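Limitations
The structure tokens in this dataset are predictions for the assembled complex, not deposited experimental models. Users should treat interface geometry with appropriate caution, especially where small molecules or nucleic acid strands are included. An illustrative entry is reproduced here so readers can see what is and is not provided.
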Amino acid sequence: MNHNRRLSLRAAVRIRDQLLRLSSQRPHVSLPDMRWTECHELIRRIERAESRGWQAAAGRLREQLQTALRIVRGHVDESLSCLDRSSSAVPALRDLCGDVEALADEFASVTFRPETLSVVTEPIVLDGIELGSFEICLCLKSLGQASPYRVIARDPHPAASDSSATHPHIQSEELCEGDGRRVIQSALVQGRLFDFFTLVGRILATYNPSSAYVSLSDWTGTPCVDCGRVVDDEDCYFCEPCGESYCSECTVICCGCSEIFCSQCIQGCDGCGDRFCRGCLDTCADCDEMFCRGCLTENETCAACQAAADEECGDDESDTNQAPKQNEAIPDRGSHAAVQPLCVGEAAVPP
Amino acid sequence: MKILYINNDGAGFADSLEIESGLNVAQFFEQQMPHAKPSDYLIRVNRQPVTADMQLQEGDRVSITPTKIEGAAA
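Predicted assembly:
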């Protein structure tokens, strides 16, 4: 007996043992009562929201209802699988062995480990996007459970916006079977492993643009850090201060240096309101607000502070013309009074 | 003669089927899937690809699997 045949036989024996163990278990069938009640409640709330014209709320509730119904469907499918398994005959060892042997002709490689049977597909290309090859790894201990297999990218080319999406219909190594869900379950329940791996392989080789975790049109590019949109490199801009990439709609041009920045690294001048980067803004020496260079005086103060200072200077000049009498209290000019070099005369001494 | 017929279209099923002797793969497909095109399916006999004119034998395992099965996003 050659090496491959021995491996196939070992795999078939292990799989048959597991299927026999599963078929001898009393089927545990339960109904999703709580989830069903939740669906009823969601429908009631949707009807109430619609009657009050709260369309946005109704939309969100409908999404929650979709999720809840999918969970109910999964629960019912699992119960059906339990019942199917209990009524299905376990395949003969000869058939299981034939399935495992035939996998080598259908896939690039087949590997049997004590707890897993894996095949590797040829490299997958969908709509010109190379996704690499995938390992379909069936966990033998998990046979009988809802998702007994994982699909692992061998040479990952994940979506730019989601590193866990290695294929439009895979997220975190879990394939969303879509149209293939029932037939895959049927193949697993009946122990038709060749059919199971072939079916998963066909789903990987098919692109469904209407229901993908990430569309192939958004697969490559750079995600904007702000809005999350994936854009081509030509439409991608780099913000130097924060070191992140943004799309054209999430960037602003500095009115001072004309460089491109993100909305966080640019702010408005407190004087004119135009938007400048931090390098093109300075603080007023008096009020510490941010102004562009055009809105600051030679004294590095803003117009308002300069005007206030000018007014004080004018007051000081009139005070100089009326020198205080002896023993007369000097009026309190406030703690912000400053010596004005242009005003000849006296200045109030702060207390 | 009796064969095992596995249809992996839709919900899928596998069952023994009594067919006439001398039937070839193309004729069998036409009988079982009269509105479908063979090019849209992987047709395997005993898990091997075969030609359309191959005659079916007693005990053959015939499987028909769509080439395109659409996945989804959960």
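Some entries come with short summary sentences. For this one: The radius of gyration of chain A is 37 Å.
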